[in-house]
Design brief:
Layout: E1 19-23, E2 27-31, E3 33-39, E4 43-48, E5 51-66, E6 71-84, H1 89-98
Antiparallel strand pairs: 1-2, 2-6, 3-4, 4-5, 5-6
Length: about 100
């Protein structure tokens, strides 16, 4: 006898999955996001499972945030995507600039 209350397959993404999908430099979808550390209309700082990701652009807006699945959608004109490892000296400069 089948148990109808147990899902046959898991539909949620695992937190270890990470992808970045950019459409026409206007719509950005990122999976594997652990936390949104800070954001404004020119820069987002996201902690992902692959390290910190900085998104820079113009008129950036948080379109969707799904904390459970770790999915973030951003709209606006995207200029730059950069990964920064916590151990890098460069990270100290970025963090001090963000939290002045």
């Amino acid at each position: 006898m089948d148990n109808y209350y147990e899902p046959k397959e898991k539909l949620n993404r695992t937190p270890a999955d990470h992808s970045v999908k950019l459409n026409h430099r206007k719509n950005l979808e990122i999976t594997g996001v652990k936390e949104v550390d800070s954001f404004d209309n020119e820069e987002f700082l996201l902690e992902t499972v692959m390290g910190y990701l900085i998104v820079r652009g113009q008129n950036l807006q948080l379109k969707n945030l799904d904390v459970g699945d770790g999915v973030v959608s951003i709209k606006g004109k995207i200029y730059e995507l950069s990964y920064v490892d916590e151990q890098q000296e460069k990270a100290k400069g970025i963090f001090s600039k963000l939290f002045r």
